[in-house]
What does this fold into?
Amino acid sequence: MRELQASINPLREGIAASSAPSPCAFVIFGATGDLTHRKLVPAIYNLAHEGQLPTNFALVGFARRPKTHEQFRDELRAAVTEHSRFQPINPTVWDSLSQRIFYLQSDFGDPKGYEALDGFLKKLDRDRGTAGNRIFYLAAAPAEFETIIDQLRPSGLIQNSNSWQRIVVEKPFGSDLATAERLNSVLAGVFDERQIFRIDHYLGKETVQNIMALRFANEIFEPLWNQKYVDHVQITVAESLGVETRGGYYDQAGALRDMVQNHMLQLLALTALEPPVSLEAGAIHDEKAKVLKAVRLMAPDQVSQFTIRGQYERGSIAGQSVAGYRSEKNVAPDSCTETFVALKLLIENWRWAGVPFYLRHGKRLVKGVAEIAVQFKAAPAVLFAKEGCAPLSPNVLALRIQPDEGIAIRMNAKVPGTVMNIQPVKMDFRYGGSFGVRAPEAYERLLHDAIVGDSTLFTRRDEVDRSWQMIDAIRNGWRTASPPVPYESGTWGPPEADEFIQKDGRQWRRP
Amino acid sequence: MAKTVTSPAVETFAAGIETAVDVAAIEKQLHELWHAAAETQPGSPERQIARASLFNFVVFCRTEAHRDHATQVLSTLTSYHPCRAMVLVVDPELPKPQLSAAISAHCHLAAERKQVCCEQIAFHASGTDVEKLSATVLPLLESDLPTVVWWQYNFLQSVVVFRQLVDAADQIIYDTSSWDAPENQFGALAEIIAARQHSKFADLSWTRLGLWRELAADFFDDPSCRAKLNSVRAVEIEHGCGPGAAVRAELLASWFAAQLQWPAAEALAKIRLTEREDRDVTAVGIISFVIRASDARFSVRKDHGELAASAVVEMPNVCSLPRKQAFRPADEASLLSQELDRASNPFIYERALRMASQLFGRAGKI
It folds into this structure.
C-alpha cells in the first residue's frame, strides 16, 4: 500500500481551503438602533437567503430597552421586509433565521448583564451548537465602546481557547489620533489585532474591491499607473443629502472626520498601493499602510494652501427647497463645522511623486455620486493642432462607486466627416449591465468576512493611526485659519473650491 | 430579405416572444432590432433597453421540450450571466432536412428602470441539414468573448456535431446524470478531456458533489485526522434512487480512490455503494458517506429536508460537534452559474473519471 504524504491533505487538491463559516453566535451591542435595523439584520437575512450563514448560528441582541425575544424578532422582521435586497421576504428563510434570534436587556456598564450574556451564550453552545465562537458587534454609540470592551474582559466571554472570538467596531473609530489610540489600546488589552475588525463599509462595495482587479488583472493599466503618465487623481464622494437626523453627531465630527478619515483615505490607499505579494489580508494591509505613510503630512501653515472647507447654506435640490446647515436640527446656529472639504494630497513615493490626489466631499451637493478618476497626461497636440483641432482632452479612467457602479474611459476619436475633427468619447462599462443585480450589499460581504475571519476588507490599526495623524494635522491648521466658506445647497460646493484646483491648472470633474 | 423593424417588433423581441427569421439574415435582423430599440428610447426611460453579453452560450437540445426547458433556465441565468444564447434543437433522425431560426430576448430590469437584454437565437436542424449547423452558428459567435457549450444530452453520441463545434468552445458543460449508463463512457470521456486541454469540461454531476467533497476535505486539514488516511478500511456511500444518484455516488467514490492513490483492486475492496432501500423519491443524489479508518470514523449525512449536511468526526480524544453546512442551490441555472463563475478543476475530475471507468465501467466489479 502506498503511503500518503503526512503534510498534504490529498482530498484538498483542487478545492479551495474552506471559507465555510464556522458555527457562531453573533452578538450586537446596540441592537435596537438604526444600524441594526437598516443594515446589519437585513444583511444577515440576505446571507441566510444565500445559504452563507452557518447552520449553527444565533443572533443575540444586547441593548438597554426592555423587550422580549418575540418583540425583537417582530421588529427585525419589519426591518428586513423594508431593507432586504430580496423581496418579498422568503417566509421559510425568515422563520428559520428568526428561531435563532434572541434578545437580552442590560445597561452596557452592568457586569450582571454580561454574566447573563455569558450564560446565555453557553446555553446556545449546548442547544444550538454555536461551538463557543462569538462575534461581538459594537453598533452602540461610540461613547459606549470602551465600556463594552472593558466589560467583555472580566465576563469570561472571550476566554475560550477551543473557539474563536472576534470584535467588529463600527465607525467612527475615535475622533482624533489620541482617542483612536486610546480605543486601540483598550481593544488591544482584550483582543489580539487578528480578532479586531474595524469596519469601513466602503470597502465592502464591489467597485471598491474591483480597484484591485482593474489594476492588477489587466496588463494595459498598471504600466500607466504612475507619475510618468498620470497627471492627477480626483476622488469625489458627493452627497445630495444633508445631515438628516445626525445633526448632533455631525456638528461635532464634520466632513473631514466623518468621510475623509475613513472612506476616502481608504479609496486613496487602494488606488495608489503597490502590488501586494498576495491577496491575503496582511499583504494588502501592508501596502495600504505604506501608501498612507507616504502621504505628506501638512504643516499648520500649509493647510490653507492644501485644503478648502465649506458649509452649505439654503438652496434647492431636485426642485425642493432645502435649509442651510445652521438651521438643521441639533446643529449650533453659529456652527463652524465643515460640510464640504477639498484636499490636495501628495504621496511622496517613487510611483506618485508630483501627482496630486484631489479629494472632494460635501453634503447638499448637486447629486449623490462617488468616483475615483485617474486623469492621464494629455497626448502631444502637435499632430492635430496643425489640422486646426481643438486641444486634445486628456484620457480619464473613472471608477464609479455609486450609483451605477462601473468603469468609464474617456478617449479621443475622430468625428466622422471629411475634415479632421477630434472629440472626446466615453466607453462605459456598467456592472448592472454586465453582471446583473446580484452583487451583495457592502454589509453583507463584510459580515460574511467577519464570520469566516477574513480581515482583508477591514482596516488595520496602523492604517487608522496614520489616517488620524493626517486628519489631525489638517484640523490643527484649521484652528488658526478662516472659518468654512459658505456654499449654496444644490451646487458643487463653494466657488473657492474651483479656484483651489484651477490655480494648479486643473478642473474638478462633473461626475 | 429581413423586414423593416418596427417598435412593436422591438416589444415582441424584448418580451421574449420568438420571431422566425431567415437563417441568412439573423445578424442583420438583430442589428435592426437594436437600432430600432435605440430610437424608441428618448424620453421614455421605462422603455430603455440595453444589450449585454459576456460570453457566447451554445445549448444543444434533442427535443422541443428540452429547448423549452433550456429557454426557461436561460431566463434565470441571463440575469446574472448575460450572454448571446444560441439554442439548437438537433434531430438528425428526422428524414426531412430543415434548418430554421427564431430570435427573442431575455430582458431583466436593471437600475433606473432600464432593461438589460440578452439575445437568444433558436435553431431547429433536422435530417441532413444538421451538418449545416456549425457553419451557421460559428459566424454568429461574438468575437473576443468566450464560448460556452451546454450539451443537454450525451455529446459522445453526436460525434460529428461535437467535432465541428468543440474547437470553438472554451468550456463544455454537460450532465452525466442524464446519460444512459455513463459508467461505460467514463473512459472515453476522460480521453476526450485529456486531448482537449484548451477547453474546460464541466460535468454538472461533479458540480453537485461540491459540498460533499469540500466537507470530506475539511476533515483532513487537521494533521491528527490526516494521519488516519493511511488506515482507511472502507468508504461507504449511500445514495438515493432518483435519476443520476448512482452516477454521483460512483464519481464520489472514484474521487476518494483516486485522491487516496488506491490501485483499482484496493478500491474495489474498500468501496461500498448502497442504494437506499426505502425507495424514498425525495432522497435524491448522495445521502451520506462514511470513511472508516482505524480508531476513527468520518461521516457526512444529508439532513432531513436536504438543505444542509452534517459532518461528524468520531475519534478518540477528539471532541467534535456535528458541523453543518448548507447546500448551494442545485437547480440547473444555479449549477451552470457555479461553473461559469468558477470552473471545476479538470485534472481532479479527469483523474476521478479514469478511476470510475476502472471501477464501474464494463470491466468494473462494484
Remarks:
- The two ends of chain A are 67 Å apart (CA to CA).
